[in-house]
Amino acid sequence: MRVLGSHEAHAPPKVGSAVRQCSPARRMFDPGGRAPQDARMRIVSLIASSTEIVCALGLGDDLVGRSHECDHPEWVKRLPALTEPKLPTDGTSYEIDQRIKAILQESLAVYRVFADRLEAVRPEVIVTQSQCEVCAVSLSDVEDAVCRMVSSQPRIVSLEPNDLAGVFRDIRKVAEALGAPGAGAWLVASLRERMAAVESTARRLASRPRVACIEWIEPLMSGGNWMPELVAMAGGASLFGQAGKHSPWLDWDDLRAADPDVVFVSPCGFDIPRTLAEMPLLEKRPGWYELRAVREDRVIVGDGNQYFNRPGPRLVESLEILAEALHPGAFPPRHRGSGWVAWPRA
Question: Which pTM value belongs to this model?
Answer without folding.
Answer: 0.85
